[in-house]
Each structure stands twice: as C-alpha cells, then as structure tokens.
C-alpha cells in the first residue's frame, strides 16, 4: 500500500531533480571558454569553474539532496512505482521550470506529453494503492 508520505517524497524528488536542470544549464554557461593545454589540467579547470560558480553549485546541491531523499524513500516504496514516477515527473518539472525561465519547450506537443505523463503516473499510483480487504487485513469469522 502506498502511503501519502511516500507519494509526497517522490514528488519532492521529482521537483528537486527536474526543477534544478534548467538552473544547472544556466550555471554551466561559460564553461566552453575554459581552455587548458592537456586533458588533466582541462578537467581540473572545469571542476574549479563549476564548483566556484554559485549559479551552478546551489542547484547542484539541491539536485543531490533530491538523490538523498530518493534513496531514503526507496527503503519503503515499491521500486516499480518509484522509478517511473520520479523519472517521468522530473521531466514535467524540467519543462515547467524551463518555461518559467524563458526557455522554449516544444509547444502543444510538449503540453500534451506532460498531460499524458501526469495521467500515466496517476494511474500507476492509483493501481499501487491497495484495498485493505484485498491485502488480507480483513479477518472474518
């Protein structure tokens, strides 16, 4: 049986993962201008650029906190419900946040996709909610 807390936790993870993606894209602007002589120094310069950049670091930490919540939620949630729910809804949150930030998102077909994703996730959640009678909790003499 799916608890409300589990569903809310999965929604939180989807929001943290999805909403941070457009901010991470904005935070990496300028990374292409970092140039060094060899691969190792290039890698180190890119890491330095990213982790000293607050526009990247804050969304990155929020995104990673979503991973921690996801890991903790997996202890009590059915994996076949958690993974599709979080992955599909994070796309919805990414598109919504990107639109709020002025990014193009694909028009009517993207909206239709978000509606279908939301409907599919709703069906998954509803099918996971079990009736106490069917779970064998109702003992009749």
Automatic annotation (TrEMBL):
GO CC annotation: membrane
Gene3D superfamilies: 1.10.3730.20
PANTHER family (UniProt xref): TRANSMEMBRANE PROTEIN 234
Compartments it resides in: Membrane
Record-given protein name: Transmembrane protein 234
Transmembrane stretches, start-end: 68-97, 109-129
The keyword Nucleotide-binding appears for this protein: no
InterPro entries: EmrE-like, TMEM234
Stretches assigned to coiled coil: none
Membrane topology label: Multi-pass membrane protein
């Amino acid at each position: 049986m799916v608890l409300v807390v589990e569903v809310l936790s999965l929604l939180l993870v989807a929001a943290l993962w999805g909403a941070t993606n457009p901010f991470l894209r904005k935070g990496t602007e300028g990374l292409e201008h970092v140039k060094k002589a060899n691969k190792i120094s290039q890698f180190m310069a890119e890491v330095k650029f990213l982790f000293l950049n607050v526009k990247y670091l804050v969304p990155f930490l929020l995104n990673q906190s979503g991973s921690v919540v996801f890991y903790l939620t997996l202890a009590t949630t059915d994996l076949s419900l958690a993974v599709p729910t979080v992955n599909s809804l994070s796309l919805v949150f990414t598109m919504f946040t990107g639109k709020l930030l002025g990014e193009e998102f694909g028009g009517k077909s993207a909206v239709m996709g978000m509606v279908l994703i939301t409907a599919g996730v709703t069906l998954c959640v509803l099918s996971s909610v079990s009736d106490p009678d069917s779970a064998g909790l109702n003992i009749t003499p």
